[in-house]
Amino acid sequence: MTKAARLLTLLRRTLLICVLFSYGLSNAMGKSPNQPAATPPAAAIASAHPAATKAGEQLLAAGGNAFDAAIAVAAALAVVEPYSSGLGGGGFWLLHLGTEERSIFVDARERAPLAARRDMYLDHDGELVPELALNGPLAAGIPGVPAALDHLAAHYARLPLSHSLAPAIALAREGFPIDAHYRRLARWRLEVLRASPAAAEQFLLAGEVPPEGHVLRQPELARTLERIAARGRDGFYSGELAEQLVAGVRAAGGIWTTEDLSDYRIIERAPIVFDFAGWTITSAPPPSAGGVGLAQMLGMLAELHLEDQDRVASVHRIVETMRRAYRDRAAFLGDPDQVEIPLARLMHPYYLAGLARDIHPTRATPSLPPSLPADLPSGLPSHVPASEGQDTTHFSILDDEGNRVAATLSINYPFGAGFVPPGTGVLLNDEMDDFAAQPGTANVYGLVGGEANAIAPGKRMLSSMSPTFAESDQGVAILGTPGGSRIITMVLNALLALSKGGTPADWVDAPRFHHQYLPDVIQHEPDAFTAEETAALAAMGHRLEPIDPKMFGNMQAVYWDRAGQRVLAASDPRGQGAASVVTSSLHLQMPDNSQQN
Ligand code: DON
């Protein structure tokens, strides 16, 4: 045998051993070589701000898991997107534990103070005063985010809060350059921010919106984060900081007590889980309207065979399912610990088939519910401006053990209540506006609520935030978005796009349309429909209203493509976020907001 032939034989044998070894290894792990891998080939993060995505990457690089990264991302967003979320707000965290194949919903929603009353935002004539539920400390619910950070660290993360909060503490102390988006939202809330000296000091420069590029430092927020890093939830809900929060709120007309803070608890709830088009969808249960709404809309759509319809007929059917789901939202949904919600009935296939049958194939159904007064105001009170869609935040994370986080966090309106209790650095939410402050009257998102969402002491206000997973043999999607009342229909649009294939970049980019029962109008991005489609929908009896794409939120999506053995991530081009896919040896970040590996 020549030397070359010997070398070839050796190479063949080595290859054979490699193949046999990998075959044996896959069998030892309980799967054939063709079965999808049990863990993803990479980790990924998509968030609404590059500095937050970077904070999450730092935690993954330091040996943290998806939950460590989630704490770091949430805390960083609290610093760099003060108009969207923060320690003074709340939110929902949908978790999936890779090794246990188990999903958990962490409800860190704000709750009404114990002194709250159902008529607290009405004047002597019983008329709603919307500003009271939007501006200043009376508008603020008891925050849930600090308790959630502590809970994640104690139960699911690997590293202590001193590690996971470190990037946010540095960002708060050293500062970050503010961008045009910050300036636009600060300009819009300027008067409210000026009314709170501590908020003006923290977010303005000599009472004005700072110029672009100005480095915004928040030393008091850095100190509060350090307290939480050192003492966990007690650093926020008891002791000196809690007293400062309560004193500041009460001095400016609010009703918080120290008992409100010490009593606050996150609640772990079972997510809403259902099947659609071969995918298992896992989403937010009440007090979010998201999971129920998605189950209802997709349950109706399963009866309506969109695959056989043209674009106009499809949009008509999707809109009619939105209308019916938002009607049920208004009539039945609220805090599950305080109101009886007929969940099983609302999501029962027979009920949904009945709702679907009621949809006329070519005529819009007018929104005239028997259960609510016929003279419902349609839409926003004229003196309250509509908010943009990017003033709440969402991030999606996957780690290489298959752990996942979809988290949507909020302080509600841009810059929340615009109020900072002196000495705390904590900007308070105005989530109380998510209650039906006067059942039957629209809130700031034009949403009309019923008795189920009336204000009561200690009650959680109904939300639209819908962190969501979709899973099948093909892959696992992790997604969510801000966007006020449009959140649920945006997630619906994304799930419909996902069920047809494509990548996260396609789902976050898909043109959007929305109907919420009242006002009785299809809101849509200007390029969502052609002129012919608009005319055809109008001929069916639909009212259409094109709105600025910024009114829809900035979606963040991660996808583990099991079949293709790759991980992809995308941050909505409507926002300024960043998506990144991280392997242990390689880190990819591309300028167009979308990532793959
Ligand atoms: O919980 C909710 O449904 C609202 N507070 C979310 C607000 C929101 O998404 C604002 N962004 N446009």
UniProtKB/TrEMBL annotation:
It holds the Pfam family G_glu_transpept. Belongs to the gamma-glutamyltransferase family. Cleaved by autocatalysis into a large and a small subunit. SUPFAM superfamilies: N-terminal nucleophile aminohydrolases (Ntn hydrolases) (SSF56235). It comes from Thiorhodovibrio winogradskyi. Pathway: Sulfur metabolism; glutathione metabolism. This is Glutathione hydrolase proenzyme. It catalyses: an S-substituted glutathione + H2O = an S-substituted L-cysteinylglycine + L-glutamate; an N-terminal (5-L-glutamyl)-[peptide] + an alpha-amino acid = 5-L-glutamyl amino acid + an N-terminal L-alpha-aminoacyl-[peptide]; glutathione + H2O = L-cysteinylglycine + L-glutamate. Keywords: Acyltransferase, Glutathione biosynthesis, Hydrolase, Transferase, Zymogen. This enzyme consists of two polypeptide chains, which are synthesized in precursor form from a single polypeptide. Its EC number is 2.3.2.2, 3.4.19.13. One of its GO terms (molecular function) is leukotriene C4 gamma-glutamyl transferase activity.
